[in-house]
Every structure is written in C-alpha cells, then in structure tokens.
Amino acid sequence: MVNLYRLLGLPDPSKVQQRPAKPKRMSVDPGPQADDRFHDLGEDVWSERTGRITPRPNRKVVYLKPDDLHRLPLQGMEQDLLEGDMVLVDLGSLNQMPSQQDVCKRRVREIGEGIGYPVFSLNESDTLLMVAGAGMRVDTVRHKLGMAIWNQLPESEV
Question: What pLDDT digit, counting tens, does each position of 45-57 carry?
Fold first, then answer.
C-alpha cells in the first residue's frame, strides 16, 4: 500500500516524532569566556600595549575666552605657539563691550606680530580669532580647513 502522506510530502502521523530538546538559550552578549580564543580588548594589558605603541600627542588646541573681569589670560601664549599649539580666542562674550573687544583683539594681534605669526578671523564679526602655531599651515586661497587635505595634495600645490 502506498503511503499517502509520504507521496504528498507530509509527515506521517502514525510515526511519533520526538521533538529535539532545545538548547539552553544563551545571552546575546555572554562576555569573554575562559575557553574563548578571542582577546578581550577591554583588558588592561591591551590598553597598556596601545599606550606604548601610540605616540603621545605633542600639540594641543588652546581655547581662550575672557574671564569674569573681561581680560584674556594670555600669559605663556607665545611659548604655546612656538611649541606648535593652536590658539583660538573667543570674544563672543564681549559683544556688548566693543572697546574691550578691541583691546583684546589688539593684545592677540601684538602677540602674533611679536613672534611673526598672523592672526586669522574665523567669522565675519571678528569675535573668533585663530593663531596657528609653529609648523601649521593655513590655506588662505582655497579656504580648506584641516590637515587631511594637505596629505592628499601634490607637493606643487602645497
């Protein structure tokens, strides 16, 4: 006799099917296990190794804005610029005091002229000033900011 269920591709109801036991559900993120062959990059060993390989940054961006007495803390700014740091001066808090704003702009300009570095205005109201430190390039023709563009340009355009 022909098995009708088999002919139609259906399971045979006369045969009892044992359902396989479901495996124990694991967490989506079980974390590192003792027998794993992967490295846990959160361990101190790896952060120490990365710290030894990666050179420490030797430049920084110095952000200055007037203090409560509307003065700029410019002590040591010349040395920072000579070491290659960039100085950004934000005079936006002095919008209601144009004479004090002019005094602060003049002091920044005098420091820049004293060491031979130009002072750039980054906005139309001249309240955000930038002085690039030693070894920094500022594109004044194409007005492209950032250092990545310099790595992509041929030497003739730099």
Answer: 877 877 778 777 7
Grouping H, G, I as helix, E, B as strand and the rest as coil, residue 53 is: helix
Beta carbons of 94 and 101 less than 8 angstroms apart: yes
99 in any annotated domain: yes
Q: Which amino acid is at 70?
A: H
The three-state secondary structure class of 13 is coil
Q: What is the pTM of this model?
A: 0.57
CA angle 79-84-90, nearest 5°?
80
Domain that holds residue 99: 61-152
Confirm whether 29 is domain-assigned: no
Q: Number of structural domains, the chain?
A: 1
Q: Are 81 and 108 in contact (CB under 8 A)?
A: no
Residue 157: per-residue pLDDT? 53
Collapse the DSSP code of 148 into the 3-class scheme (helix H, G, I; strand E, B; otherwise coil) and give the result: helix
More confident residue, 134 or 153: 134
> What is the domain-level CATH number for residue 97?
3.30.110.150
